[in-house]
Amino acid sequence: MPHQRGTKTVAQNRKAFHDYFVEERYECGLALFGTEVKSMRQGRVNLKESWARVKDGEVWVEGMHISPYEQGNIFNRDPMRPKKLLLHKSEIRKLDGLVARQGYTLVPLEVYLKDGRMKLQLGLCKGKAEHDKRDSIAKRDADRDIRRALRENNK
User: Fold this and answer.
1) Is the distance from CB of 30 to CB of 118 less than 8 angstroms?
2) Residue 29 pLDDT more than 80?
């Protein structure tokens, strides 16, 4: 089988952009089993209620649901098991310090295939207050109205 090139998005966490301000993004590898990779290639992964934490010098993502692979039988793992993220030690130390001292949260934003390997985009996020969420919704609605008016005007 030839080595695949480029990136292909498998799943996105759109709720994260509604609930958080994304300050920085990190690309992480995932330590997975074969049946989990096969299931993820089929797009059977859910990031909605997932988060990441630093524990004992390692970063773990929790709450990420990977549906069991249909042909996996005894090799399937628990869909909700914590998955280890692969980052450089310096990045882990930096993230640990920011999360512990400044109140940031680590949120998985996207899972994608990059050159045949599963990658996860991890966001360093700050929580939005309710008024910030309302402002975001109002801005999005205004932009949509402007685009609609321009489209109508150009016809």
Assistant:
1) yes
2) yes
Does residue 74 carry a pLDDT above 80? no
Q: Among all chains, which residue has been given the structure tokens 């509604």?
A: 18
d(CA 79, CA 93): 28
Question: How many whole angstroms separate alpha carbon 80 and alpha carbon 77?
Answer: 9
Contacts of 115 (CB under 8 A, 6+ apart): 3, 4, 5, 6, 7
In whole angstroms, what is the distance from residue 18 CA to residue 123 CA? 13
Question: Is the separation of the CB atoms in 49 and 63 below 8 Å?
Answer: yes
- 78 or 143, which is more confident? 143
Asked if pLDDT for residue 1 goes beyond 50, the answer is no
Question: pTM of this prediction?
Answer: 0.77
Closest CA to 85 of 116, 50, 115: 50
What per-residue confidence (pLDDT) applies to 40? 83
Secondary structure class of 34 (helix, strand, coil): helix
Q: Kindly give, in sequence order, each residue whose CB lies less than 8 Å from that of residue 147, ignoring residues fewer than 6 positions away.
A: none
CA gap 70, 39 in Å, rounded: 8
